[in-house]
């Protein structure tokens, strides 16, 4: 019985096409994995920065500044008097952001990110200076995962709600 | 029994279909990364937009202490217009060179540093004698187009 198989040329041609397609698809897949890692790192950085910035601004807006009172920029530690939580202190210790209330010291970020900068600029907090206090907060963070590391520099400013000249 | 196997054409067609599927997957992943970048920029921009609105509010509060009339916002302000502010502004800046700059300390101002991609404008509209509408727009270029985050705030004359 006569066998209908591939001829040698057919096999060679199809193998060549297959290998070209595989080469392209595998390299794009590896690239896509890299992109995915970067997207994941960005997400980690954002989640941390968002949580920290939101909780600080929420607390700070309704508080009064305890220290520093004089105009200072930048300052590493901010102490505020919150109507419910009492005295709250924010500072950067090593690469972590600490929130201290009384004896309770909490690290606000997860271990997936490192902070290289977390400081404040305070203006108008002196009494009788005819200015409403304002605080600028800025933070820079990178992900702990160095493969396709993501970094973000953020800044925002708040005007305290309680009138205080 | 006759067993013809695949023909070359069949093989080519199946490879073609496979490559389309792979390309589509790859396109989705790339789109995903672009979204991640967009979210990062929106996030930075929303901080900057909040800064703009808060500074204008601060100027309104300071006006009360200084005895300035409502709406002066620290300086001789026209009835309305588009201005700029930075974190330590004592009054609205009438002409500024957008985009914002960022210095080595990571501080976004118009004073010093490298240009960033972000431009911020503050538009003040007088709604009535006792109400100002503040619109803060932060925009940045994105793939040939422009993306924007806007914040709106209404300030009232409480005193």
Explain this structure:
The complex is a heterodimer of chains A (about 160) and B (about 160). Chain A has about 160 residues and is α+β, with helices and mostly antiparallel strands. Chain A is about 35% helix and about 35% strand. Chain A is built from one helix and nine strands; from the N terminus they run αβββββββββ. Chain A has one helix spanning about 10-60, and strands at about 65, 70-75, 80, 85-95, 95-100, 105, 115-125, 135-145, 150-160. In chain A, the strands form two sheets. Chain A has a five-stranded antiparallel β-sheet, with helices on one face. Chain A has a four-stranded antiparallel β-sheet with strand order 2-7-8-9, with helices on one face. The longest helix of chain A is centred in the first third of the chain and has 54 residues, at about 10-60. Chain B has about 160 residues and is of the alpha+beta class. Chain B has one domain. Chain B has one helix and seven strands, in the order H-E-E-E-E-E-E-E. Chain B has one helix at about 10-65; strands spanning about 80-85, 100, 110, 115, 120-130, 130-140, 145-155. In chain B, the strands form two sheets. Chain B has a four-stranded antiparallel β-sheet with strand order 1-5-6-7. A three-stranded antiparallel β-sheet of chain B has the order 3-2-4, with no helix packed on it. In chain B, strand 6 and strand 7 form a beta hairpin. The longest helix of chain B is centred in the first third of the chain and has 59 residues, at about 10-65. The mean pLDDT of chain B is about 85.
């Amino acid at each position: 019985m006569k066998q209908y198989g591939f001829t040698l040329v057919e096999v060679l041609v199809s193998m060549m096409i297959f290998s070209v397609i595989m080469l392209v698809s595998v390299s794009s897949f590896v690239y896509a994995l890299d992109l995915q890692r970067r997207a994941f790192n960005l997400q980690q950085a954002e989640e941390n920065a968002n949580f920290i910035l939101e909780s600080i601004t929420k607390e700070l807006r309704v508080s009064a500044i305890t220290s520093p009172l004089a105009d200072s920029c930048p300052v590493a530690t901010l102490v505020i008097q919150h109507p419910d939580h009492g005295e709250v202190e924010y500072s950067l210790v090593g690469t972590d952001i600490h929130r201290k209330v009384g004896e309770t010291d909490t690290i606000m970020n997860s271990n997936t990110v490192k902070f290289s900068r977390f400081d404040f600029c305070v203006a108008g907090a002196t009494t009788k200076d005819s200015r409403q206090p304002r605080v600028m907060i800025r933070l820079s963070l990178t992900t702990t995962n160095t493969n396709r590391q993501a970094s973000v520099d953020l800044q925002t400013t708040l005007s305290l709600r309680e009138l205080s000249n | 029994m006759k067993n013809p196997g695949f023909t070359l054409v069949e093989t080519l067609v199946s490879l073609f279909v496979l490559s389309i599927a792979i390309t589509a997957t790859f396109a989705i992943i790339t789109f995903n990364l672009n979204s991640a970048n967009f979210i990062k920029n929106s996030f930075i921009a929303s901080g900057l937009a909040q800064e703009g609105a808060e500074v204008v509010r601060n100027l309104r509060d300071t006006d009360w202490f200084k005895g300035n009339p409502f709406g002066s916002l620290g300086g001789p302000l026209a009835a309305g217009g588009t201005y700029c502010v930075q974190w330590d502004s004592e009054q609205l800046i009438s002409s500024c060179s957008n985009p914002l700059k960022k210095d080595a300390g990571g501080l976004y101002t118009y004073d010093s540093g490298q240009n960033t991609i972000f431009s911020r404008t503050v538009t003040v509209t007088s709604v009535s004698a006792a109400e100002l509408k503040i619109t803060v727009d932060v925009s940045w270029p994105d793939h040939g187009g422009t993306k924007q985050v806007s914040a709106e705030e209404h300030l009232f004359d409480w005193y």
